[in-house]
Amino acid sequence: MLAFYLFSSIGILWFEFTAGGLFLGEYSANVLPWVYIASAAMGTGLGVLYTQMQRILPLRRVIALIPLLMAFPIFLFWLEIKGVILFGYGIFLIRLWLEAIYTLNELNTSITSNQLFNIREIKRTFPIVSSGILMADIVSGFSLPGLRQLIGLDNVLLAACVMMLIGAAILAYISSTYRDFFPNLERRTSTGQSDNTGRRHHGQRLQGPFRKYVVWVVVFFVMSQVLLLIIDLEYLSQLEQRLADREGSIADFIALFSGTLGIFEVVTQWFISSRAIERLGVFTVSAILPILIVGWSGLTLIGIVPIFVGVIILKFVDELLRYTLIASTGPVIFQPIPTMNRNQIQEQVRGLAEPIAIGLTGAGILATIWLCHQLLPNAEESVLAEVQTFVFLAQMMALGLIWLLAVRVLRDRYLELLVLSAERGQLVATRDMDTRTFKQAIVETIENPALDVHKRGSCIDLLANLDPRQAGNVLAPRLVELPVSLQQQSLDVMLRYPQREYVENVSALISQSPRPEVLTPALRYVWLTDDHPDVNELRTYLDPETHPSVRATAAALMLRRGNARQQAESTAVLRRMLTDRDEEIERVSSCRALRDALYLQSLRIHIPGLLRDRSLRVRAAILETIAAVNLKEFYPSLVRALAYPSTRKAAMNAFVELGNDAVPMLVSIGTEAYRPANVRASAWRILGQIGSDNALQEMVENVIVVWGKERRNLLRSLLLLSKEDGIEALNDYLGRRGIEKLIEQELYFIAQIYAGELDIKAQDASWKEHATAELLRRSLKDQRVDAVGRLFLLMQFLYTSDTISAAAFNLQSQSSDSIARGLEILDNMVDLSVKQTLLTVLDPHRSTLDHLQALASLVPYQPQSASARLRQLLDLRFFLSDWPVACCYHLASDARWSLNPDQVVWGLRHPTGFVREAVLRYLKVASPTVLKSLLPQMQNDPSPLVAQQAQELMQR
């Protein structure tokens, strides 16, 4: 892809330099507005053409034909210049075709890259691919003067055509070699009605502040495009006026200018761009170019800078910053827009608003030129050109100020919309977020007393999620001025990473004698961070009249930091509170305060009683204290608490508090078959909440070990991790090929399920046990649905989650149009080696035989008798859930089929009671003698169902 982009860009740039020289030699720069107007219409038409080509041809053919379509007219233009054929307006068409080439090339490169690289790879690969045009700037710019001297300016067109054909050949090779990466045409939706339905599914109309934000986004990009055209017009006008040899000198100057600019662009892109955005913020970086345009245009307008020098420098700065800094900020500007509408808005802004702006700009330039001629009808051409330059410089200043205003408004509303999204639960952590600007806006919002307290609180939550370690920087100096609720919230955030330098700010808050809910965390902050605290000051809070939470916190801190006498005093206070049977708040407050004591000493004897306390709040508080103080002897209590809904949340919080210390326990819980399913699911969920490197490593290592619901729960936990950490971790551990193998494994399992459904169904008409067979088939269908769900989860590790979720949503519909749309989404997104197999399996309109034929490359289908297929299903028992396994034993019992001894022994040891019960029922029919010897052991089974059945059989 880099080679394609490099060769194509060299050819396009040679064509651009030649077109510039020929155009200014044949016409005046004043004709350029007509080119802009025509290019707007042509750009729209080519976009429609590209879409229509995709409807009638496979995408791999389209992307190979587009470079040929770009290059072939250049050959015709060369013939026109040589006089072989006559168009009449060949030079004008050359300049017009240049605009079309840029539109087609960028569109084709972007689509091809998106097909070849998934969303995870594109972040690393596309910057490399896109640097091809920067390298081409240098190569083509410095090579053109020598090439022109060697073959002549006219023949450079032919050389440009050859370079573009080389690029086309490379792209044709790519599309042929990697043809599986491109979609076919089988599932295009055919009706406009279905398209409209899809839009309703994928997005909703923006309202309120989001709509206003989008309006300013349009202004931002339109002003950028308009200024680009006016600066380009003035640049070419100055070259036309100052360079005598219009064709050769202009082309050489443009080429050398581009080559020099390319060097600066490469340096800026590789070494400056990302650092500038990180340190200054996206909106500060976005404001640099409009500020420079306004300032430099003003200096040129008042005569401080010569016009020619001013315009050349203006062009240089515009090109340098536009294609480095400004190009990098675009995705972030769209970030506050809801995900379901973001892509649609981007398409409308970049694909509709900008082409319209180009056409209107061309019309506006023509109107300006006409007005200058009307106001100065007898002026000389040079004077008229100078007046036009002054007018355009003034327009640049005005448009630059509008652009700058758009940046300012977008910056102000950026946080407002993020906060609004957070309040609606729609905000997802992203690496594209402009951290610096975000933090600056949060400070302004928190300091604004006129704003709603709830909105300011949302900003504190966002700050805590964005940068919890440095949150004290923002919050500590403002603690005293904040309302009580925000003071408490701020202190809770600061206590995550307490730092010594903020003790004075918190002490100033304590001196105001705040309310208990604020005083409690403030005391904790000061006495946990101060190296030399005066512990005697805590005595004033031990009075029985003091609020229980403050009293318990002061006692726990004294137990932590005091001498032997002070520790004895605080222990007595805490003991009275822990054993107070009448006041629940006393017990709850003291349990919560114990987390600040390093050593509980004699207070440990009260923990078993507190774990059985009648108050749920007390039990929850002591569970979290066990984790905070690392009481390892009580860790089994945390494990038991996971099994009860009432204490599960507190136990999960406690495990998260333990961090890496809890990881081995949680992995053991998650992989232990005898644990209840909800407890195992909770274990994987907790590991995701811990989110440490150790926890992530264990999670990704167990993805290939566990199966069924455990794998589903584990994949969901990884997907829910912030900043795509889980996605990146699994990709780093397994690689793309490893994830593809998991997908193939699920398809293999689906093939076995289809074979079981088909073979068992083939003979059920002659069975008396039809109901049992039907029960098994239903359970197998449920297994297949679960496997499909895991397929979609695995695909989210390779592709955009929103897109995969949209496809899954459409495939669950009963509408044929929705199903076709879901398959079309996957067809265009997925580039797996088993893509066609996957699409066939997910198509509900295909028959079971069609599905098995599609899966034949993974598992060739061989028809078997129903009994043999049942035994094969039991050989896959480790992949089946409990209910289908039980159904297999029931069907074998009713149909009187024999099973392998190892299958029977495994079933007797199964952790689920109803599976063991089904095996006993099978043995009753298949081997009564063996059953008789087993019953004395089975009557003591931990499952009441199995024990009761064993007793009944023994009585018989």
Set down the secondary structure blueprint.
Layout: H1 2-26, H2 32-56, H3 59-81, H4 90-116, H5 119-151, H6 153-177, H7 192-202, H8 209-242, H9 246-280, H10 282-301, H11 307-333, H12 339-375, H13 381-423, H14 435-447, H15 453-466, H16 471-475, H17 484-494, H18 503-510, H19 516-529, H20 548-561, H21 564-578, H22 584-593, H23 607-611, H24 616-628, H25 635-641, H26 645-658, H27 663-671, H28 677-690, H29 693-703, H30 709-719, H31 725-762, H32 770-795, H33 801-811, H34 816-829, H35 835-842, H36 848-854, H37 866-875, H38 882-895, H39 901-908, H40 913-926, H41 928-938, H42 944-955
Helix pairs in contact: 1-4, 1-5, 1-6, 1-9, 2-4, 2-12, 3-4, 3-6, 5-6, 5-9, 8-11, 8-12, 8-13, 9-10, 9-11, 10-11, 10-13, 12-13, 13-14, 13-15, 14-15, 15-17, 17-19, 18-19, 19-20, 20-21, 20-22, 22-24, 24-26, 26-28, 27-28, 28-30, 29-30, 29-31, 30-32, 31-32, 31-36, 31-37, 32-33, 32-38, ...
